[in-house]
Every structure is written in C-alpha cells, then in structure tokens.
Known about the structure:
520 residues, alpha+beta, Uridine Diphospho-n-acetylenolpyruvylglucosamine Reductase, domain 2, CATH 1.10.630.10
Amino acid sequence: xDLLLPHISSSNLAQPAIILTLLFFLYALLILFRGxxxxxxxxxxxxxPVIGHLPLLTxxxxxxxxxxxxxxxxxxxxxxxxxxxxxLIVSGWEVAKECFTTNDKKFASRPKFAAAELLGYNxxxxxxxxxxxxxxxxxxxxxxxxxxxxxxxKLQHIPRSEVQSSIETLHELCRSxxxxxVEMETWFGDITLNSIFRMVVGKRFSTAFEESGGxxxxxxxxxxxxxxxxxxxxxxxxxxxxxxxxGYKKTMKETAKVMDEMLHKWLQEHREKRNSDGVGMEExxxxxxxxxxxxxxxxxxxxxxxVIKSTCLAVILGGYHTTTTEMVWALSLLVNNEExxxxxxxxxxxxxxxxREVRESDMNNxxxxxAVVKETLRLYPAAQxxxxxxxxxxxxxxxxxxRAGTRLWVNLYKLQRDxxxxxxxxxxxxERFLTSEKNxxxxxxxxxxxxxxxGRRICPGISFAMKVMHLSLARLLHEFEIGRPSEEPVSMEExxxxxxxxxxxxxxxxxxxxxxxxxx
Length: 520
C-alpha cells in the first residue's frame, strides 16, 4: 500500500492540470473563432508600426480631403489606427444616422485630450467632458438658462444692438469716401464676440478686457482659442503623458492660469453685485444665472466656481469662431455669385422696403436668405470633421463590430457633398433648399444635412448662431452694396485647421444703398 501512495498522489495532481490545459486550449480556440468571425471595418493598408496611419494625414492636403479620398476607396465607414487609438471614420449619412440614433448613447463620450484637461478645468467644460452625470447636469443648465429660445428672446436686444453699432460704423466709413474697403472677418467677429460676452458676463469683449487687465488677458484669450484645437503627442500615445514635446502643455497651463485669473475677477464682481445691490431679471447675464442656481447643486466632485468658469468659457469657445467663420463663407459665396446676391437684396427690398432697417420679425419672410445660410453650412460646415466622439461600450455599426474606446470622426464635409443626395454637390445653389431639399433643417432631423452635429452631443448653440447669422447678413446686404476689390473672384481656398476657415481674409468694397437716416 505504501508503494502505491506516490502513484495516487501524482495522478490526483495531474488531473487538474490536464483540465486547466484543456480549458485554456478551448478558450484560445474561442478567441480565435470570434476573431475570425467578428466583422471589422475595412482598414487602409500601409499602417506603420507604433504610429499606424498617421503618415496618411501629415501631407499638404487638408485632412478632410484626405479622408474623403480614402472614403472613395474604402467606403463610407473605415478604421484608422492613429497612434495607439482606433479611430472610426464615417462619411455616409446612413452610417452616421446609425451612429447617432441606434448607437447614440454608446458614442456619447469624448476622448480625453490634453487641451480638455489643461484648458477645460480637468474636463469640467461640458462640451469636452466625458459622458456621464456631470455632462448631463451642466448641459441641461446651459440649454434651459442661456440657449433655449425663450431665453434668447429675452436677450435678443444684445445681438440687435451689436449689429446696429457695427452697421453704423460702416456708414461712418462711407461718409467721406462714399465707399470703403472692409476686412469682414473682423467685422463679423466683433458682432459675434461682443454679443456672446454680453450674454455671458454682461460686458462687451473689449470692455471686459480693459477693465480686467488689458493686453495680458486679451492675448490669453487668443491663445485659448488657438490651443484648444491642438493635438499633443500624448493624445495619440498615452505612454508619452509625462513628456511635453514642443512645449504645448506648458503653454496650455500658462494660458489656463491667466484665463482663470480673468474669470475669477469677473466671478467675484458678479458675487459682489448680487450681495450688495441685487440683480434684476432683466440684468441677469449667464454668469449671474449660474451663480443663482448652483449654490445648492452637486457637480460630481467638481468645484462649483470651476464649473461656472468652465461653462462660461465653453459657451464663448463654441459660439465665437464657428458663427463668425460661417458668415465669412456666406458673404464670400455671394460676392462670387452675383445672381444670388441680387436675389437676396431683391427679397429684402420686397419684404422690408427701404424706409426702415431689417428686424428680427422679418426673418421668417426672408426665405431665400435662409436658403443661402443653409447652403453655406452644407458646403462649408464650421467643423468639417465633427468634434471627436468615443464609444463607451462595444456596438455594431453597418454590420461591423466596434469595440469600446474607439474614437469616431464624421467627415461632415464629405457627407454633405454626397452626389447620391445632392445634385451638383460642389456648386453653390441656395435654390435647392426651396425645392428638392426644402424640408431639410439644421437641427439634425435630416441625417443628410447635419452641420451642427446630431444626437446627444448636437451643438446646443444652434438657435443663437442662426439668429446672429441671419440678422447680421440681412442688415449688411439690405443697407450696403457689396463688391469685390477686383474683377478676380474671391479666393475660396480653405485654411489648415480643425475648423474650416478661409485661408485668405475676405475684403469687400461697400457702398451705402440705404441712407442711415432711417434710424432717426
């Protein structure tokens, strides 16, 4: 019996080992089977080790055009490996619709970029914060207290007065020479930025900086706009998080510090005013509203002051450049298409006349002007590539398996020029929105036309942007003849960047077509 004990012990030990080996083998077979039968999106060849497909996007061609050519070769959905991240590229409306309807919640998060962390108060800024309770809470406040239609109606005197002031400046320029050469990005930008600042902090842009500290804060704001679209190496290679190639992170931290000083001053001023004199409903800007409704709120561990400051910054960042850029593109298209320009002005004369200025109440009757704005948004969406999304769980898109953590870019530029949807898609034809596409709106109801995005992460400032664009363009085109400085068409070359701006600034010659006496 004693001689048998070692034999029995070895057998007992061997059985579990055999079972574990068998289970491991079966598990490996299962993984292999799933891998072979999981349908993944097509992926362009030529990916490099470590950096993946990045070399495809570093040429002279603009990124949205490069991705458009890849879509021609690989279809409306394909996958790129950008550094250590898988990025899904979508350029067809059917696929985009599936992403933002069936899979809307699954793609509702944002990647954690360095700019969102360092400039956006550690992801407190709701436009770039990951999907979750904080984002839902702050977005609800923004939609109800600043950007809802009823709120914008109460504040409509602000953009109205800014447009009026800028129009009067143009009349003053023309007073001595009868005509003037005007750089339009600055002109449109002043209207937009002053309107947003007054709505958010109760001061015009220039006044706010003069009172707060002048040039230092003014430069920090410029840097803030420029840095927010910068991708640093660690955005693509997380293992480089502790390195700062090019010094971008250092610059972001310095800019964030200066911006925080400025916002802290404005916040303290608002608190002092509330505590001393009180603030009437008609005087309440967005910072006042935020102060009044956040005192008892819980923001998932974020400091309340940082939530207020980051939210105010998000509204300024989201509304300024995009709205300004679209108005520049719209006017560029019109001065290059004189028949369309004449149609807009004929409509203004017919619906408004020349005895008074254009008012907000006229906008519903200016259907051709509305079509011009829509056609501009179709051809030149402010963000030619959507703000990146990130999937929070596995899902299926167009029959392909998409893993959690996959980033998503929608090529809006390509999507809205689809020849299967749009006749002569590269041509400027506002009339299409009066006929075949007259039911297409800008609020994401028509998946073929989504210039402001769609789904949970749709831009919350659509109503503000449309109101400012319609009123600014209507007043300008109603009261001035607009011409090119030479016989040559205005350059439509697109600038480099995540936002699709003109490479060459737009300058036009203006002459009055209506006397400023109508104001008196």
